[in-house]
Amino acid sequence: MYAIIDIETTGGNASRERITEIAIYIHDGIRIVNEYSTLVNPECKVPPFVARLTGISDEMLAHAPKFYEVARDIVEITEGCTFVAHNAAFDYSFVKQEFLNLGYKYKRPVLCTVKMARKLLPGHKSYSLGNLCNSLGIQITSRHRAAGDALATVKLFERILSVDPTLNQIPTDGLHPSLDRSVFTKLPTAAGVYYFHDENGNLLYIGKSKNIHARVLSHFQNSTTPKAIEIRSNTAGISFEETGSELIALLLESDEIKKHKPLHNRLQRRTFYKYGLYSFYIQSGYHVIQIEKIKTTGKPHTVFSNFDEAMVVVHELAAKYDLCQKLCGLYQNHGACFQHSINQCKGACIGLEPADVYNLRVEKALAGFDHKWSDMAIIDHGRNEDEVSVVLIENNVFAGFGWMMKEDRLDNPSQIKEYIKSFQDNRDVHQIIKGFLNSGKALKIIRF
Fold first, then answer.
1. Quick one: average pLDDT of 438-445?
2. Strand (E) or helix (H) holding 76
3. What confidence tier does 370 reach under pLDDT thresholds 50, 70, 90?
4. Pick from 336, 367, 398: which residue ends a domain?
5. What is the pLDDT of residues 231-278, one digit of tens each?
6. For 160-204, what is each residue's pLDDT tens digit?
7. One domain, residues 232 and 316
8. How many domains does the chain have?
9. Which residues span the domain enclosing 188?
């Protein structure tokens, strides 16, 4: 799976300049299966010559989202993908730096269409995107805009794949001889749960993804760790179950792992979510928020599957509610935080801001995570356009999930129950549902 990306920036140096626009086309080696594009507020002025080149002005960017507001989208849509760009070192360095500014280490396998074109499409005078596409008869609309250049890179990449189809193949070395290679072409690009079986049909691994096809391919294309190599060599069969809903994929994966205890899901047998957002008061009276591993005691305000995702959210909270990054655990230095030196922190880190004033903002930041566990139906995407998925909470516990037609009475608990398959309620389920509700991804929430 490939994430074909183009960015526009305020300049050419990733350590000093910022991204102003990003476009991403997710390609499965045959066609585009997903796309994402947005302007990005760089929080600085765009130089006049750059504005003339791209047509992106300060006025256009004034109300665009800042990078921390789109960071999670970029992580999620490119997960399990190879980062592809024309002169990839440039685009990748900027994306990595933007994430590094948030304390996040963004890492993806990288392919450069300049390098591939020089090798597979020799003889061109220039390999700049504009000149190369012109030579190959590839039309570029909206030149020097992220979406236009990214789409041109897609067409160029498809041309490269037509010359060397092996770029899109899963390496056969180390695959189990009984594994039917055609299974990879049958995998859906939808959300769901997938299963790896050994030659006797025993479960080796259970996973979930918003895109089953992309995630499964990533297991077999990027097998560099001992665990990945072992799974690759022992997997003789692959099956899957579409859910349509990311939430149901999470719930089903958790239940299946606990039920079957696959050999390679050791770390996931206990919980999918490993980190929590906790808060406490320090000696000076300040209310502090911190990301910590899930504890057996104490209740987190929300939970996360990995540390990097958690840190992105804390950065968002700090920026939105003017919280001190030092008191949020984002910096470990002595004395004042860096933001205070540039007048972006009110001084809670060194006791200048009254604790009671600062704590009011912390409480506002945390209020959005404190959902009451009431009877409700969480409505999300179905497995096709005619249905929706439903997760039912009843009598303070998780009752189960199912699928209904869109025209069914979704506000009728009795009718909803007819479609619900019961599943076990446990602490992990509560964390999964709470995390999903906090993400704001549900299509609709109906409270009874």
1. 84
2. helix 67-78
3. low
4. 367
5. 889 999 999 999 999 999 999 999 999 899 898 887 555 555 678 889
6. 888 877 666 666 677 899 998 888 888 888 899 999 999 999 999
7. no
8. 4
9. 183-267
Same domain? 393 vs 351: no
**What is the pLDDT of the chain when averaged over all its residues?**
87
CA atoms within 13 A on the CB side of 260: 20
107 within some domain: yes
Please give the structure tokens belonging to residue 447.
């409270």
Rg for the chain, CA atoms, rounded: 24
Residue 151, C-beta contacts closer than 8 angstroms, at least 6 positions apart: 23, 25, 140, 141
Could you read off the pLDDT of 372-392 as tens digits, one per residue?
A: 667 889 999 999 999 999 999
Structure tokens at 373: 């566990």
Query: What does the block give as tokens for 348?
Result: 């809670």
In this prediction, residue 175 carries a pLDDT of: 86
Same domain, 355 and 413: no
Strand ranges, E, within 94-250: 110-112, 192-197, 203-209, 237-242
**Average pLDDT estimate for 107-116:** 89
Report residue 186 as tokens: 């049958």
Both structure tokens of 135 = 């030579």
**pLDDT tens per residue, range 90-107:** 999 999 999 988 878 888
Place of tokens 């910022």: 18
Residue 248 to residue 234: CA distance in whole angstroms: 28
* Tokens 């960015």, residue located: 7
Tell me the β-bridge partners of 68.
none
Number of residues assigned to the chain: 448
The per-residue b/e assignment along 344-373, b for 16 or more CB within 10 angstroms, e otherwise, is: ebbbbbeeebebeebbebbeebbeebeeee
Contact 21, 39 (CB under 8 A): yes
Same domain as 260, residue 282 = no
Please work out, in degrees rounded to the nearest 5, the angle formed at the alpha carbon of residue 45 by the alpha carbons of 42 and 46.
85
